[in-house]
Amino acid sequence: MKIAVAGTGYVGLVTGVCLAEHGYNVSCVDIDNEKVELMNSGIAPIYEPGLEELMVSNMEKLFFTTNYYDAYRDADVIFIGVGTPEKLDGSADLNYVYSVALQIAESIEKDCVVVIKSTVPIGTNEKVESIIRKNLKKNVNLSVASNPEFLAQGTAVQDTLYPSRIVIGVEEESTGMILKEVYQNFEAPILITNRRSAEMIKYASNDFLALKISFINEIANLCEIIGADIEDVALGMGYDSRIGSKFLNSGIGYGGSCFPKDTKALHWLANFHDYELKTIKATIDVNENQKLKLIKKSRKYFDSLNGLTVAILGLTFKPGTDDLREAPSLVNVPIMLEDGAKIKAWDSAGVNNFKKVFPDEITYCKTIEDTLTDADICFIFTEWEEVKNFNVLNFSKLMKTPIILDGRNCYNLVSVQKSPILYDSIGRETINNLEFSFI
Ligand code: NAD
């Protein structure tokens, strides 16, 4: 079976590489020539643990190209994994998906199954099928199937090799059988349903996870007001198997390429059908406010950040990725700069991407120690292992005033109690072991 994948981002490349690992020959297509050149020289254009190694070890089964015609012409199955970013009104921009549909229509010369892996609004599979059919150049049999992707960045390779489930949305049984064959060696429950339900499963799953995060963040905010501890509250909740312990970590809000746009897109879609998804609206609103939580907290300690040296630990939206899309750092840094702060920042993988947005305004440091040296205040935006394993005692040794605002609750309060620092985190007591008081 010959497989092609359109798009070599987090979803497309990981899908292509994992299918090659399962023995398939896979042609991976991208419009970005630079990316294709990098992949052909054995370099993964994105950071994802284990990806580059797996790509290199399967190089003889992988073909990276910008020539879509060569890739799609005789493919049995074509996966679409291109982006579906947010439009200004919150709806999903499907232009990338539609342009792949046209390229497929132009190219295919034999019967094939087109599989939409990108997250697309309910009804998109039908539209893609009609675009392809209207523009077909050759008389071939074609079917379009939905196969949403559930990988998480940071664990994308493992999530794809060992998926929690494989959802296949089809209108004909025979298409379902072909996709079952593709996935025959993956150990995971396979759910076959119709295309609209498959499309909805993806949005409902992501939006539910985002809802869980916003819920625990609101409970954390209330914990701060009434003097409860969110870590204990989440632990106590998580023992209940109906609730589960995952996604109960409070913090400064979710980011990334999926939750923000997928909540907005489903909310938009519901509105378009005259239905208001109130829980999702609340999820979005809570998250927008939560991203500003630390900068608001900083006002308790300083009127403004003007002239202060601000240390930032973590720029990416979560650890294990170099992706900055919708990261809280992107909202906070402009406010700090506007205030007149001098920013020093460290990140384990995201510095190069951050430099594309803020090339000169920030001093980028190679170590956490350098970042903290002489800083007046520290903001933790991402819970990288390096940050979690950093000895809390060193904050006071390196910083001018060791005020730490932790947006990811990296340290347990017992270890902080013994340190001469001010530690203000999310949903927990503020520990102030400094000898002076603030405004
Ligand atoms: P991405 O932006 O990382 O990658 C998209 C790639 O598609 C880019 O490399 C781009 O150059 C390429 N592209 C654009 N037009 C093309 C064309 N005509 N032909 C070939 N390539 C083309 O996107 P992503 O994060 O991988 O997300 C892709 C889709 O998967 C989105 O719908 C997203 O919502 C969904 N998804 C993403 C994740 C995630 O964690 N990133 C998880 C599950 C689902």
How would you describe this structure in keywords?
439 residues, alpha/beta, Rossmann fold, N-(1-d-carboxylethyl)-l-norvaline Dehydrogenase, domain 2, 3 domains, seven-stranded mixed beta sheet, six-stranded parallel beta sheet, 19 helices, 14% strand, elongated, binds nicotinamide-adenine-dinucleotide
Describe this structure in words.
- It is a single chain.
- The protein is of the alpha/beta class.
- The chain folds into 3 domains: 2-193, Rossmann fold (3-Layer(aba) Sandwich), CATH 3.40.50; 202-290, N-(1-d-carboxylethyl)-l-norvaline Dehydrogenase, domain 2 (Orthogonal Bundle), CATH 1.10.1040; 293-432, 3-Layer(aba) Sandwich (Rossmann fold).
- Helix content is 42%, strand content 14%.
- The chain has helices spanning 10-21, 33-40, 51-57, 68-72, 95-107, 124-135, 156-161, 173-182, 195-226, 230-238, 259-272, 278-290, 293-298, 328-339, 351-357, 368-372, 385-388, 393-398, 413-417, and strands at 2-6, 25-29, 62-65, 77-80, 112-116, 142-146, 166-169, 190-193, 309-313, 342-346, 362-364, 377-380, 403-406, 422-424, 431-432.
- The strands form 3 sheets. It has a 7-stranded mixed sheet.
- Helix 8 links the parallel strand 7 (166-169) and strand 8.
- It is elongated, with a radius of gyration of 24 Å.
- It starts with a strand and ends in a 7-residue tail after the last strand.
- The model has no long low-confidence stretch (mean pLDDT 97).
- Bound molecules: nicotinamide-adenine-dinucleotide (NAD).
- Residues 6-12, 29-32, 35, 81-84, 96, 99-100, 103, 118-119, 149, 151, 153, 257-258 line the site of nicotinamide-adenine-dinucleotide.
- Nicotinamide-adenine-dinucleotide binds next to helix 1 and helix 5.
